[in-house]
Each structure stands twice: as C-alpha cells, then as structure tokens.
Amino acid sequence: MADSLSTGLVEEKENEKEDKERATKAVNVDLNKKKDEVADTRGFHDKNGGARGQKGNLSDLSLVRFITTELTRGYFLEHNEAKYTERRERVYTCLRIPKELEKLMTFGFFLCLDTFLYVFTLLPLRVILALLRLLTVPCCGLGGSRLLQPAQVCDVLKGFIMVLCYSMMSYVDYSMMYHLIRGQSVIKLYIIYNMLEVADRLFSSFGQDILDALYWTATEPKEKKRAHIGVIPHFLMAVLYVFLHAILIMVQATTLNVAFNSHNKSLLTIMMSNNFVEIKGSVFKKFEKNNLFQMSNSDIKERFTNYILLLIVCLRNMEQFSWNPDHFWVLFPDVVMVITSEVAVDVVKHAFITKFNDISADVYGEYRASLAFDLVSSRQKNAYTDYSDSVSRRMGFIPLPLALLLIRVVTSSVKIQGSLSFMCVLLFYLGMITLKVLNSIVLLGTSCMFVKEAKMEEKLFDPPPSVASSRANSRANRSKNTYTAAPQEPTSDRAGVSLTPGVSPPTEKPEGTSSAIPKSDSDTFLTTPDEDDEDKILNNDMGLEGDGLKHRTPKKDLLEIDRFTICGNRID
Question: Which sequence spans correspond to the domains of the chain?
C-alpha cells in the first residue's frame, strides 16, 4: 500500500515537471518568434538561425555584418506621428506667412496712404472752414456757442505748424547738404544712416506725445484745474519737433540719394545689407502676439516711409537731368532692388519668428481686424480721436514731418510759371482729393467687413476708457493684492497663476468649446495671453504673487497696444 502511494506521488511530480517544461518551451518559442520579428524589422538576417545564442560572443562581430546592418535597417515614422505632424504644420505655416503678411502689409500701406493724403487734401480745406467759422461766428452774434469745435482747433494747430515749419525749411539748402554728405567716406555714411534710423524711431515715439499734449492742452475744458504750462509753450515744442524730424528725414533721403549716385554702388549694397542684420536682431528673440503686432506695425511704417524716400530720391535725380525719362529707367533697377530686399527681409523675419515662437499664421488676420477697428471707430459720433492720430499712435507713423519734406522737395524741384502751370496744379490737387476719397471709401468698406468677420461690432458702442478711473482701479487692485492676498481664496487661470477676485483677468476661450464670444466691457476678443506659462506656474509655486507678479505688465488687448506700449520692443 505504501509502495503504491509513493509511486503515485512520484508520477504526479513527474507529470508536473513535464507540464512546466512544456509551458517553459512554449513561452520560449513565443519569445523567440517575437525576437525574430523585431530582428526582421531592424534588418537583422541570420542565415544559420543561431545568432540569438551567440550575442555574447564578440568574435562574431565583423565589419561586413555592420555595414550590412546599416544598409538594411529600417524604421517607422508612424511610431512618432504627433511630432512629424507638428513639423509638417510648421512648414505649412511658414509657407502661409508670405501671403498673410503681405495682406496685412497691403492693408496697412493703404491706411498710411490715407493718412498721408489727408494732410495734402482734406486738412487744408478743414483749416479754411475753421478759419471762416472763427471769423463769422462773432459777426453773427453767437456769443453763447463755442467759436471752434475741438476737432477744428486741432486742425488749425496742424495748419499753423505746417506753415511755420515750411517757412523754416525754406532756409535749408538741400544741395549744400547733398555735397556735404557726399564728401564723407562710405563707412562714415553707413554709420550715419544707422544712427538716423534709430533717431527716427526715437523722434516718432516722443513726437506723437508732444502733438497729443498740444491738442489736449488747447481743447481741455476751462472749468478744470490748470495743470499745464500753457498752449503757447506746447505749440512751440510741437513746431520744433516737426522741424527737427523733417530735417532728420531730409538727411536720410540725402544719404540714400548719395548711395544711388555712387559709382560702384558700394554704399547702396551696404545699406541694403543692413536690412538683413535686422533678421539677426529679431528672429532669435522671444516674441508674443502683442510684440509681433508692434513689430508688424513698425514694418508697415518703415516700408511706407522707404517708398516716400525713394520718391524723393527719384524727384531730385530727375530734376538734375532735366526730367529726362531715360534717366528714370537708369534708377529703376536700384529702386526695385531696394524694395525687393525690404520685402524679402520682412518675409524671412516673420516666417522664422512665427516658427520659433509657435504662432499661427491666422494671427495676422487678428492684426488686420484691429487696424480696421481703428478706422471704423474713428467714424463714430462718439469718436475721441482723429483717424490720422490713431494711425500715428498705432504704427508710429507721423505724417506731418514726411509731408512737410515732400512739399519742400516738390516746390524746389518743380517750377510753376504761367496760368497753364496753375491749372495743372489745380487738376493735380483735384486728382489727389479724388484718390483720397476713393481710398477712404474702399478702406471703410473693407474695414467693416474685417470687423464683422472678427465679431467686434459690439465693441464699437463701448465708451472710451478713462485714464483716471483706470489708474485708480489699478492702484486699488494692486493694494488689495498686497494686503489682502492671504485671507482671500485665489482663483486660477489657464496657466495656474493665482489671481485675487478683485482683479478681472482677460478671459480666454478654451479649446474644444463652442461658446459664443462674451459681450462684456473687458475687450476679451483679441486678448493675447503670455506664452511663458511655465514661468508663471513656477512663480505661483514659489509664492511670488505679491512680489514677482505684482509688477508684471498686465495682459493687454490688441486694441490697446500701440507702437510704443511694450518696452521690450520699442526698437527692434
């Protein structure tokens, strides 16, 4: 009996061993099959089938086998589909940039042209109407009404500034300046031209503030407390600024004229290469949407100014050659070369900036809608600024100095004698008025279409922001953040930055939702958030809400961004 029991136990153990061995063999077979499949996908072909057991044997390695493996190995791109899809979208974005950028540049060019033509066409007529009102209102006995409306006061001031500055510009000898600059060396002229570009941007940044201060000082209600130095000092400052800025642009145009007339064109080549240096200074910087909007406005202004400078150069050269049409075709290749280099630099710069900062090409449509909103809002009954001043603030383009220089060059280059010449001038003036009116009508219709596509119609009826109230609210919120941050329960935005309930951050439309655009006074449509979300999260984790984030520049709507708002991109 005992022998039978022991024999049964031994048989059961043997059966269990056999089952384990079979299971182990089955697992090994499966593993070997998987290894064979992996080896086949990587290009390993083992003829004898014993390579798996000889991996540890270094004697089997040979140069022929290594070369064979390198020639036959493979890989599958679909294993990282997301990365390659993102790379392809970046390429498509770079290919879309030239088209979208040129749409914005074209729209901005006609905005600048409309503002520039306004100085020559409608501004003189508005000044005449304002002076007639100034003379007729006292004679009619209307003592209770205002002599001039605020807009008419600003027009009269602009007219007086232009007249005084033109009389001062008549004493500047263009020919003497040309020969003085031509006698300098090439390197010195290159340095001078770069200094003039920087000075032009500095003048533009401060000049519009001078003009705005003059307009507000002249039209400020009398019942308010006097907090200024007077209208006459502001007027003299504005006249001095416009005169100096016009002289600066004249030196720029003269330097460009010397470059065109140089024998070997070396100076022109050096000045054109200066545009490509701009790529190095801009491409490898961190840009957000607001910064890119500022730089786009700067490029629009710079391109339009270059066109006017080229026009001045052509006028001066044609005058020297007695208006011979053949000489224009001598200048034409150089003009095309300058314009082509400018366009190429802008395209390359914007393409790589959007690539490195992961900005979509659709952002240029938002920029176009913001510029269109300025034009449409200036036609409202409750408009608080003239459209030309709005363009000046947005782009840094101030038309008064440039128009003054063009008038000075045209009057010195074209001699008007006889009644027939006066008739030609009158017809030319009527043609400019016609061009201005047609351009304004087309721009207004196009701007209304852009605003409607961007769904910004409700913002046209928002009241203008009050500087005093906004400053008071910001100070109150800042003090509330400083002293009552501990007991309040913070809320968090998309990036995780804790915000107190007293501060209303710009709302953002989350991805994947179909909610409508909020109709509130916070201007939430074109708000562009900061891209450094990781830095904000780190500051939040380290408890820097009171110190690090309190002095951070708040998120701004594109409608509140002008050319010189953000300090980091004033001179790009």
Answer: 83-137+147-460
